[in-house]
Amino acid sequence: MEKKTLLTHCSDEPGLISKITNICYKHQLNIIHNSEFVDNTTSQFFMRTELEGYFNDETLLADLDQALPEGALHQLVNSGRKRIVILVTKESHCLGDILMKNYDGSLDVEIAAVVGNYDKLQALTERFDIPYHCVSHEGLTRDQHDQKVLEAVNQYQPDYLVLAKYMRILTPEFVNQYPHRIINIHHSFLPAFIGAKPYQQAYDRGVKIIGATAHFVTSNLDEGPIIKQDVIPVDHTFSAQDMAQAGRDVEKNVLSKALGKVLNDHVFVEGNKTIIL
Amino acid sequence: MEKKTLLTHCSDEPGLISKITNICYKHQLNIIHNSEFVDNTTSQFFMRTELEGYFNDETLLADLDQALPEGALHQLVNSGRKRIVILVTKESHCLGDILMKNYDGSLDVEIAAVVGNYDKLQALTERFDIPYHCVSHEGLTRDQHDQKVLEAVNQYQPDYLVLAKYMRILTPEFVNQYPHRIINIHHSFLPAFIGAKPYQQAYDRGVKIIGATAHFVTSNLDEGPIIKQDVIPVDHTFSAQDMAQAGRDVEKNVLSKALGKVLNDHVFVEGNKTIIL
Amino acid sequence: MEKKTLLTHCSDEPGLISKITNICYKHQLNIIHNSEFVDNTTSQFFMRTELEGYFNDETLLADLDQALPEGALHQLVNSGRKRIVILVTKESHCLGDILMKNYDGSLDVEIAAVVGNYDKLQALTERFDIPYHCVSHEGLTRDQHDQKVLEAVNQYQPDYLVLAKYMRILTPEFVNQYPHRIINIHHSFLPAFIGAKPYQQAYDRGVKIIGATAHFVTSNLDEGPIIKQDVIPVDHTFSAQDMAQAGRDVEKNVLSKALGKVLNDHVFVEGNKTIIL
Amino acid sequence: MEKKTLLTHCSDEPGLISKITNICYKHQLNIIHNSEFVDNTTSQFFMRTELEGYFNDETLLADLDQALPEGALHQLVNSGRKRIVILVTKESHCLGDILMKNYDGSLDVEIAAVVGNYDKLQALTERFDIPYHCVSHEGLTRDQHDQKVLEAVNQYQPDYLVLAKYMRILTPEFVNQYPHRIINIHHSFLPAFIGAKPYQQAYDRGVKIIGATAHFVTSNLDEGPIIKQDVIPVDHTFSAQDMAQAGRDVEKNVLSKALGKVLNDHVFVEGNKTIIL
């Protein structure tokens, strides 16, 4: 027996749950878990169906094609491990957390490689027997650097790219190669403190809470669909540096929770938002 | 068009979602929201289906009877307001919160009456034009008092009883008249600090967090199925009295969140646990 | 014996704690609690000292004057109840929470009056035997209306004004009459979603957390020193209206916590920030 | 210039803050941060004073001796790194978190060695160039095993021992060698679910929140002074195993926060409680 996840996204109409679950039943597939959501403002229907059984992908998808409204998107995803490449700069806490969670099995993913624009995190990465590519940006234009990073990344054919405190802005050309497949952690509670030095901005404004945001990367900086956010309290005793220090825990926790959702096929994207089923 | 909620609880078998949603579809009922859960340790299936359309309750339930495994429980609940009676002693914060949330519409419920074993909360209740019954326990046995409280309660035929800091233990005879229909707020994070004076117990133990637990009342004190729990941090500067004071907010928030789930038919009970769909 | 709180704010120099506590000791005043903070970026010293004993305010302040650096601010505040006036528009949840907490003693304050630009909350206010002034803004310029509100407010000589979802912007002339004495609750996690309809803005951006901010009002809208912030999680199932509904609880909790700090003389203001000792 | 922290614990009397800060002032020591607490139920005074300057420890402590009430405890602690030994069994998440935080500098401590009763975590430890001692308990009595562990530990003369999911109970003889210097992480919100398999207990009770508790180890199992606690929400979809999995994050976060407090000399112990200044 295999396990697969059926992801359906189409315009809403009566009877969709019944039609889809009927087809699964006829194919003798057992539904382990089913979640659906209708966005009433856009009349869009989303359903995530965890299935178990013997799959004939072709006939199953053909049956669904016939039953669902025109333009329906559906995907039958293997419930196995995904492959990721992680992009980093100099800070180790997010990378370290992913490495450690992968080590102890709480984040079940294949880390194909780590690519950094400095060599600072090479030793840490290699301690976990994962290849590290240092692609320095020095002396290169942004396009040139992105091109070299892409070459390093593409050889692994990853399902997703993870920007684990990668402190450079990707060109639209780069982003378009991995649409909704690049996950970034931004060190603020977006949309507050967009752009550079969010902790300094937070300190200057005198906020009492700081946060982090994991989101898909689109060509608009810090504007992509948000997957997960969380915050921690701060007070007047925190300098901007203290905030950055304290924020590390929330950054890594938010990133790894977002990864858990994405890597297990829970996340749909609709416009600038995510639906997490 | 009407709105009703179908609650299904039966032993698990393949095709249940398909069968139930098919029947709804045949009855031309639109599924607004559907949630299901299978408890794999007990092989029990739970489903909550919000429906919209023109209902023929009799034929719908008959169709379901035929389709579902023997012994299946199903209920078609009107999505209207429920009627509650609130039991109190002397503390006003939980009662006040329910009165105020009912006043501003954020807790949509009919408060038929408040019954207290003191008259301390009579004035507050009557400010909101709700009848108050003072049933003093003085000079009465527990059975006699419970009998008088039951008489005061039963005339309103409430859907649920809410113990909003009612500081007396109900007899099993009382509890059995409202099985899984009495909601209590206990002022600790159960199962820690069962019984009397939980804040004093928490102080004596030196805990760094205090909490509250909303649960259905069964004949075993503080042992009923838990609906909602939450906590707040405390530290060495808190006396037992400070903890009690700080705990009021978490008590009232937990109680009103639990009520929101129960009154909108989200809560199933299985053994000593709740499934909240 | 009396209780008073000494608030000291001056430029930092060695020996300040020693000097101030010495003077208190010589005056035979017992220190119940002492907290201090030095802002290293601005070299400012802040200290809050709860004292108990028989006070000779004049000689105590004179002794402090002599000991502290030039330009030092110090204040000896009676630890009694403060008097507030609450400004409202149509929403009842923040007002109701303050009324109820005042009723049960958990917010120990004298509510001198409630002033609203509609009469919607008159009945609720009067149930708690508090005078309500309806000052309609219809047909008035902003200056004219503010003038009439000020007249209604000033007759009570309040220590603080509380904007409990008062949905109008105060003129600088109004604000300047109560510098750092007007507390507002803004229904977003500032500085995100400044201005109108923050819940709609939050919905449009697809955030996964919404919040509330209590701050002192200055003449720059939504830019005053922040006293308290908190958040709650939301997800794709929340409409803008659902967010507004869910946000009510966090708004009222944040406002009443901020009030607790302000009314017990814990809050210093330095530039655009608060120091809470 | 040096930095040291003065920790004072004595019975309360008037003028203590003044006396202590005076002495510091006379010694030309600058107070960077001062916190005090009086436990009114026990009339005990606690003060933590961060000092900067040129220290003459002997005369400073002698001056304090003369000024403070008889039986006063005071300690002048170097603000440098502490040395710890970590005890483990098989689970890597707490150890991994400490190793990683030490690696990136957010937990500034010298990890002298890791001692485990299995060899499972040897490779991970050695990747961070830290010595690992495997001291198997097989075929040994508890006394014999503890004796061997003590030998491995004592050679490093650690300031503190950290039980990072060390799944064995220490003998009182062991504990007495490191009074208030052994920190344990218990995988429940104590005092709920004392003893073995707390997640299974939590599952069986149907709680809606699970937690973790960091505490000093005393000879009474799970009864030592609590340093830090935190919780996360769970629901009916969590098996006991899912709870254990989800609990890992809260365990490691609670442990590392407790360590941060202990290693920076913020924690006083009074009876069965901690005062954290």
UniProtKB/TrEMBL annotation, chains A, B, C, D:
It comes from the Bacteria. The active site is at D222. The keyword Hydrolase applies. Pfam families: ACT, Formyl_trans_N. It comes from Vibrio tritonius. Belongs to the PurU family. It catalyses: (6R)-10-formyltetrahydrofolate + H2O = (6S)-5,6,7,8-tetrahydrofolate + formate + H(+). Residues 5-83 form the ACT domain. It is an enzyme of class 3 (hydrolase). This is Formyltetrahydrofolate deformylase. The gene is purU. InterPro entries: ACT-like_dom_sf (IPR045865), ACT_dom (IPR002912), Formyl-FH4-Hydrolase_C (IPR041729), Formyl_transf_N (IPR002376), Formyl_transf_N_sf (IPR036477), PurU (IPR004810), PurU_ACT (IPR044074).
